[in-house]
Amino acid sequence: MRQLHQAINLADQGDQQGAMRLTLQLLERNPKFVPAIKLKGALLEEAGQRSEAAAAFAEGLRLAPNDPDLLLKTGIYKLAAGKRDEAIELLGQCAKIVPGDGDAQFYLAQAYHLNGEDELALSAIKKSLKAEPDNPSVWQKYGELLCSTGDCAGGLPWLLKAQHADASLPRLDFDLAATAYKMMDLTGAVQFAARAVEAQPSDVNAWQLLATVDVKLAHWQEAQTAFEHVLAMKSADVDAMLGLGQCEVELKNYEKGVATLEAVLRLDPTRLLAHFYLSRAFAGLGWTAEAQHEAALHQLMMEQATFVRTVSSDERESSIKGQAQKLLSAHREADALQLYQQHFKGTSASSADAYVFIGKLYLFMGRTDDGLRCLRHALKIQPTVRGAHTYEGILALKLGDLNGAEKEFQAELANDPNYQVAIAELGEVRYHQQRWSEAADLLSKSKTMTPELLYMLCDADFHLGRVNDADLNAEAMAAYARSNPQLMEGLYDLLNRNGQADLVKRLQQNLAD
Questions:
Q1: What distance in Å separates the CA atoms of residue 331 and residue 406, rounded to the nearest whole number?
Q2: φ, ψ dihedrals at 280, nearest 5°
Q3: Angle between helices 368-381 and 388-398 (to 10 degrees)
Q4: Residue 7 binned pLDDT confidence (cut-offs 50, 70, 90)
Q5: Which of 118, 172, 187, 120 is nearest to 147 (CA)?
Q6: How sure is the predictor about 310, in pLDDT bands with cuts at 50, 70 and 90?
Q7: What are phi and psi of 218, to 5 degrees?
Q8: What's the 3-state SS for 354-412?
Q9: What does the pLDDT average to over 125-148?
């Protein structure tokens, strides 16, 4: 211990090399002497050797798993490395051992925030504020988290308080700009964002925010410059490319706009606004046919996207799908039902909806008898429950029973005439029956974004001689199916068989680029 104190004194006097030399001598004699390992980590950290420091702190924590200093330091380095779950575990353990440690709560709040758990983040930063009520960095983080949870009016005073105390705090101008933007104070947002990029010219998020605010203010030249800065740092950033293309159109640089927006669509053909602004760019160049085509494609894909967002709960279900499947695989059906009911607590979802969800999962897992049992139990509980008839119909369709499938889809639509999935699947029945007009009408009405169903719609349109409609639906399908080579090959074959070789070449070129 005497030699350790000598090393600490040398470090305090600025003799880092001497302190490290003594520390290494200590560790040579006793490699498991935790206080020396902690000092080694601190010296490495001060010397800027962060990866070596992190390794030293991790080694110390292995030997002393409940040491608060090592939990804090290792947690901070895990957070910096993007290992948020590990950081939360370590920092949370540190906070339990030393509840009044403001640093542990501060970094725990940051870890929760980056993990999308803002309510937990807000709880942690409040504890940090209680421990360190005069710390401007804590004021800043508290203001940021209040804003991220929707209380921008409550968060702004804390950010301004932090600015008054220490205007040089990292990213404070960015936080102020983001808060002002959310409060629709565009003048304030653009001023703070400009200061943020001046202070940190390499902060791509600050440039992106500045560009976004300039777009809202219709400052097209300034926004173009900001987007160009973003792209200088992130050359394939689709959002920035789309923003740049919009600016070029607004500034009447139509040829540049076409090139930029076509590049966007090669990277992501589902970007609806890219089709919209590309239509405007073509119109500006006097290319009427191309403009009308892009406008029609934009309208088609917008209708599909809007319809799906308003009627589907699949996205909310998807967050528990994996966990529910594990429970079903372990023969814990009651727990899977409870998981659904707890997840949808406070909504209009019923116990019958829970059985539909479980029945659907069983069918996807190949457990047909269990799936049908749950779907039929759902109908027994609530005859009008959405989806039960549809998924029985999908199973019948898969088994080639078109009459049985139609019966189930018609029963579903009798309860809910606007249920998208049932409309689309009835369209598939009509497609297999070669009733082209009815198939096309139903599939079109469903606003489906499913590539396989769009293929059927495209084929039905060709049979009906609706070549323009077929081409539009083919392009929409290609946008959603570009990562599925088998589906794309099927689409190319369909188009070639119907004399659309030029469209095939264009789609293949877009995919290759």
A1: 32
A2: -65, -40
A3: 150
A4: confident
A5: 118
A6: very low
A7: 60, 30
A8: HHHHHHHHHHHCCCHHHHHHHHHHHHHHCCCCCCHHHHHHHHHHHCCCHHHHHHHHHHH
A9: 95
286: which 2 tokens?
């006097």
Instruction: Pull the structure tokens for residue 453.
Output: 């169903």
Q: Which two tokens mark 154?
A: 């409550």
Which of these, 483, 422, 412, 493, lies nearest to 453 by C-alpha position? 422
Q: What is the DSSP letter of 466?
A: -
The string of pLDDT tens digits covering residues 118-135 is 889 999 999 999 999 999
Asked if pLDDT for residue 315 goes beyond 70, the answer is no
Q: Residue 257 and residue 248: Cα distance in Å, rounded?
A: 5
Closest CA to 385 of 394, 396, 374: 374
Residue closest to 425 by CA, chosen among 416, 402, 458, 310: 402
Q: Decide if 385 contacts 353 (C-beta within 8 A).
A: yes
CA distance 132 to 231: 40
Query: pLDDT tens digit string along 13-37?
Result: 888 889 899 889 988 899 999 999 9
Amino acid letter at 411? A
Q: Tell me how long the chain is.
A: 513
Q: For the chain, first and last CA: distance in Å?
A: 65
Torsion of CA 507, 508, 512, 513, to 10 degrees: -30
**pLDDT, tens digit (0-9, with 9 covering 90-100), for 361-384:** 999 999 999 999 999 999 999 999
Contact between 337 and 355 under an 8 Å Cβ cutoff? The reply is yes
Give the C-alpha separation, 272 to 116, whole Å.
Answer: 27
What counts of helices (H) and strands (E) characterise the chain? 30, 0
Percent residues over pLDDT 70 in the chain: 98
Average pLDDT, rounded, for the chain: 93
State the pLDDT at residue 135: 96
258 has a pLDDT exceeding 90: yes
**Among 79, 108, 114, CA closest to 92:** 108
Reply yes or no on whether the pLDDT at 172 is more than 80.
Answer: yes
Is the separation of the CB atoms in 261 and 274 below 8 Å? yes
pLDDT of residue 418: 87
For the chain, the domains span: 246-311, 449-513
Q: In Å, how far are 19, 37, 50, 62, 75 from 24, measured between CA atoms?
A: 9, 9, 18, 19, 24
Residue 170 gets which letter from DSSP?
T
Question: 500: which residues sit within 8 A by CB, 6+ positions away?
Answer: 467, 470, 471, 474
Place of tokens 């039902």: 337
Mean pLDDT of 301-322: 71
* Topology classification of domain 246-311: 1.25.40
Cα(245)–Cα(267) distance, rounded to whole angstroms? 14
Six-digit token string for 6: 């000598």
Rounded CA-CA distance 283/291 in Å is: 5
Reported as a pLDDT band with limits 50, 70 and 90, residue 313 is low
